[in-house]
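I am writing to request your help with a piece of structural work I have in hand. Here, with my thanks, is the record as I have it:
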Amino acid sequence: MPTVPTYGNERVSESALPSVRFSVPNDIEAFGGGSTQKTINTALSILQEEKRKADDVATTEAYSKLSRLKNDLIYNPKDGLNTRQGKNAFGAFDEFGSRFDKGADEIEKSLSNEDQKLMFRKMKLKEKTEFDGGVQRHVYQESVRFDNETTKSALSASLDDAVKNYQSPGKIQESIQLQKALIQANADRNGLPQEQLKAQLVEVESQTHKSVINRMLANGQDILAKEYFNGIKKKVTGSDSTEIERSLQTGTIKGESQRQTDRIMSSAGTVTEALAEARKIQDSDIRDSVVNRVKSRFAELKALEKKELDESYLQATEYLKTNSSSQPIDVIPPSLFSKLTADQKRALYSYNIPGTDDANSWVSFLELSPQEMATLSLSDFQTQYWAGLNQEHRKQATDLWNTAKKNTDDAKLNGLLSDKARIKNTLISTGLYDVQTKGRRDKVRLIQFENAVDKQFQDFERSKGRKPYPEETQKMIDDLITKKVFVEDAVFMFFDKEKRIVELSESDRNEAYVPMKDIPQTAIDRIKGMAKQRGVALTKDKIQKIYAAAIIGNDDRIEELLR
């Protein structure tokens, strides 16, 4: 029979519920659960990108500031590193390193976060390393430069001491030792290679000896300089030795020619005697120099005498201006009157009365070119022309002379004077052209001499490719006026005469010759070339005569000899 359940003493016991299990679909987005997370991730990514960009911009700007700081510290024209030169560069490493650090720290403070600062510190480290290296190089270079300049200055001072005081015993060697010590110390400080050091030591000693010799020569002590060189010849370099020998040659010519000129001038009475004595000198260079010096000395003496005569004459005329009715000898002091030449005295006697040689004086004056008029001093003008003129012509001549003087003064500023005037003036000054008479002999002489000078001008233009300058023109004229040739005696060859070319007669010009030993080799070669072109056989006699005809300017004779 069915039994109804009953409760006894048993109680309901506690126990855990069984685990509830259910599965969630894999694709949560199917229920809308992933959209929020994606949005968050995207937002975070955008924020991170924007921060990165902001950090890049900030650090880029900071780097630009750092770069400008570095360049300003180096190149600022007022207080940059490059303005610190020589000894002023000492201490620059600490100073500029500190200025770089201070500036970089200020830039870093402007950054807003640690990421930016971390990136900037990496940049700063790189730039600071590069900057320090540049500063170190600059300081080192300036230190070496200052060392070298200081050493160079000390070397120059020591050399100058030796040159100025070379006559003091031991001074030259003392200077050389000091210079070598300075070079050695500089080499030790800068690590100079031994070969370079050795070369510098040799050079400084050689330069000192050369400088001392040049000073001796400048002081006119060519004999002492030569003796000194012979004693130290082995201590100078090859190039310095060559240069010293050339200087000694020039100095010897200068010194010896001065001594020879002084000797000749102390005994010779006339320029002819002096030149004859000068031409006895064996050394050609010294002989040429002495000849030129003798000419110059006599020209100076003549110019001085001329100036004194002109001044004496003009001083004498002042007495006549205030004593127009008196005789010159009565009013001019004897001490002054005695200094005057005969022509000047004659001019003074005509000073206050019309001249008596008007026709000749006036014609002669009008024959002068403006240049010739301008070369006349007031004394020469009055003595040679004005004194012989009548009153009317005196006034006209004075006006012409004054005009010529003014025009020539302007020309002188440009170095202008016609060649013909130079030639004539030279002949006048040497007494080979008589301005007063102008006879046929004088005119022929002038024409012949002009031809000879023209020949020299042509040769000069052919060799130089230009016309001679005024001073070169005058030198050629001066040289030519003293040039001599021999004139062959048709009967007795041992009686050939030596004459200046300006003194040759028409017949002399065809018989003139120059000894072969006195003809330059270049001239001989040119003559041979001309003869070869024409198929003419040459003899020694022909060469001698062709050369003489060439320097005389006798082209017709040259053509005759080359037929």
Notes: The two ends are 190 Å apart (CA to CA).
